[in-house]
Specification:
The chain is mainly α. The protein contains 7 helices and 3 strands; from the N terminus they run αααααβαβαβ.
Amino acid sequence: DGMAGKSRYSLAMLQKNYCTGAESILNDLIRPARRNCRRAAGRAQTRSPGEPMSRARKVIYLLRHGQAAHNINAERMRAAGCSYDDFVEQMRVDDEFDAALTDLGIEQAKAAALTPAAQLAQPRVQVIIASPLSRAVDTADFVFPPSSTPNCARRVLKEEWREINGSLQNAKRLRTSELAAKYGNPGGAKHPWDTAPLASEED
C-alpha cells in the first residue's frame, strides 16, 4: 500500500493498487494537479458576471494511504518483481484487523503533506472523503490537517472508498460507534469526520 524507503511518498493514483515507482506516481499526481489548479484559477478570474457557476470546474485530488502493517513484506516482494498472487498471499500471511499505518507509513503521510501538490491543495480543499479504514483516515488527517484546511466544510467516511480484499482482516473496519469516538473531532476540527454515510454499525 505504501512505498518502501524514506525518500518515497504515499501519494498515488487510486488505480495503482500495489507498489510501483514512487517518483513516477508523485510526478503523475503533482504535474496535473498544479496544471489543473492554475487552469481552474484562471477560469475563475476570467468568468463573466453572467456565466453560471455550474460551468466552473472542481479539482479532485486522489491520495493513497501510507504503508500499513499488513504489507511491509508484501510491498518489498512486489518491488522485487514477485507475482500478484504471491503479493496477495504475503498480505494474507501478515494480515491483521484494520491494519494501521506503520512508523514509515506515518512518515510517508507527513512527507506527502509537504509536497507541492498537497500544499497547493490544502487551502483549496472543501470536502475530504476517506475510506473508513483507520490507515486511510489517519493519512488524510496527516496530509490535510484541520490547521491547513480552513475551507474544508466536511470530512466524510464512505464505504465506497474502501479497498476490497474479500476475507482479509486488513480490509475490515472498526464499528461505526468506535470510528465516531476515535475520529469525531480530529485535532479540534471545525467539522469532525462524519460517520453517518456508513450503512451499519458492524462491518
